[in-house]
């Protein structure tokens, strides 16, 4: 076990058991980060202190989630509110990961040699900068202001300036839908390359043994900060059920003063169908073969697959539903969270 300057400890023997570990062949081996028992790829220890000391600024907006909770949708909306309210900004054709970089993704892609579109764009925008120490970490640091930054890091692993200085939008989604979407993601992307069955993935998810798990601890850290003036918590189910009301609340929090006319257009622009049409711009088409199983993407859907709430009701077996319910009953930190999810 080793300790970072930020005070976190790394345990090489993660609580993933051997049977779970061998199913994630994209990043063989994993770290367990304390406090919190967070699951991370081994490369995380190279960046841990820089993530913890990353300087967020007053005009930054940080979109934070457990993966597969509506992050991409929220990022596009936040960036559009701040930078493209009239839908006429030519920068909108850049991949979303260039416009709203995820600071910790270097830990997963460090072993993938090609960086495709992102590297080309980075070379053009920052020709004299050394990219060897975290392409996306450095991109986040040098992005044009005001910045919209994405992270899946829990608050224990994130700089305190995220909340003390910037504004944070945290999105919560029904964990059953998160698990289904996360399973597809883990099979689709080479940096996870999950080789097991869905039932095995459910067990890994419930055990907190997926990347950046455990789920409830991740949510709990944000939930206890819900009254902080710089924190805005959203529920994916409410966003789907009453989009305009939720987006208006978000605009008020961000101080972007979006008009009714602008809002109607942005709602259409950021709808699942419209974002799926812009898949190449959002994900980065030329990068896809480096990161993604293209055969699987064509067969079962790529990055944009369904974008629905409540799909777990038809997908999970009764046994899986029972497992999830027992896990929710035991681990959910506040009944109000599930009330918001189930009664949007």
Overview of the molecule:
Helix content is 48%, strand content 9%. The chain is α/β, with parallel strands linked by helices and 344 residues long. The chain has a single domain (2-342), classed as 3-Layer(aba) Sandwich (Rossmann fold). The strands form two sheets. A four-stranded antiparallel sheet has the order 1-2-3-4, with no helix packed on it. Strands 6-5-7-8 form a four-stranded parallel sheet, with helices on both faces.
Keywords:
48% helix; P-loop_NTPase; transferase; 344 residues; 21 helices; Sulfotransferase_dom; sulfotransferase activity; Sulfotransferase 1A1-like; four-stranded parallel sheet
Q: Which helices and strands, and how do they pair?
A:
Elements: E1 2-3, E2 9-11, H1 18-21, E3 31-34, E4 38-40, H2 44-52, E5 61-65, H3 71-83, H4 96-99, H5 106-109, H6 116-125, H7 135-142, E6 148-151, H8 161-164, E7 167-172, H9 175-188, H10 198-206, H11 215-223, E8 231-235, H12 236-241, H13 243-254, H14 260-269, H15 272-277, H16 279-284, H17 288-291, H18 294-300, H19 312-315, H20 318-331, H21 335-342
Parallel strand pairs: 5-6, 5-7, 7-8
Antiparallel strand pairs: 1-2, 2-3, 3-4
Helix pairs in contact: 3-13
Family: Belongs to the sulfotransferase 1 family.
Domain Sulfotransferase: 59-332
Keywords: Transferase
């Amino acid at each position: 076990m080793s300790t970072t300057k930020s005070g976190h400890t790394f345990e090489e023997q993660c609580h993933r058991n051997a049977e779970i570990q061998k199913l994630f062949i994209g990043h063989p081996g994993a770290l367990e980060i304390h406090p919190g028992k967070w699951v991370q790829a081994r490369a995380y220890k190279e960046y841990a202190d820089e993530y913890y000391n990353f300087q967020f600024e007053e005009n930054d907006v940080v979109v934070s989630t457990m993966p597969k909770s509506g992050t991409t949708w929220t990022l596009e909306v936040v960036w559009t509110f701040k930078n493209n309210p009239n839908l006429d900004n030519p920068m909108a054709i850049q991949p979303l990961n260039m416009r709203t970089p995820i600071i910790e993704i270097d830990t997963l892609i460090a072993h993938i040699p090609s960086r495709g579109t992102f590297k080309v764009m980075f070379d053009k925008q920052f020709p004299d900068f050394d990219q060897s120490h975290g392409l996306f970490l450095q991109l986040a640091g040098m992005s044009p202001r005001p910045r919209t930054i994405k992270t899946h890091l829990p608050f224990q692993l994130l700089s305190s300036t995220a909340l003390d200085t910037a504004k944070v939008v945290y999105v919560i989604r029904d964990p059953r839908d998160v698990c289904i979407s996360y399973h597809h993601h883990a099979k689709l992307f080479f940096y996870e390359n999950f080789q097991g069955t869905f039932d095995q993935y459910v067990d890994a998810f419930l055990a907190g043994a997926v990347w950046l798990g455990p789920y409830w601890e991740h949510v709990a850290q944000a939930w206890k900060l819900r009254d902080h003036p710089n924190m805005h918590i959203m529920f994916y189910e409410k966003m789907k059920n009453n989009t305009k009301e939720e987006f208006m609340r978000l605009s008020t929090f961000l101080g972007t003063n979006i008009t009714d006319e602008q809002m109607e257009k942005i709602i259409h622009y950021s709808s699942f169908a419209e974002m799926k049409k812009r898949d190449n711009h959002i994900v980065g088409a030329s990068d896809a073969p480096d990161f993604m199983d293209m055969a699987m993407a064509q067969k079962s859907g790529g990055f944009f697959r369904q974008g629905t709430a409540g799909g777990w009701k038809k997908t999970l077996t009764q046994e899986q539903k029972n497992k999830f319910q027992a896990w929710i009953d035991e681990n959910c930190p506040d009944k109000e969270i599930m009330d918001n999810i189930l009664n949007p």
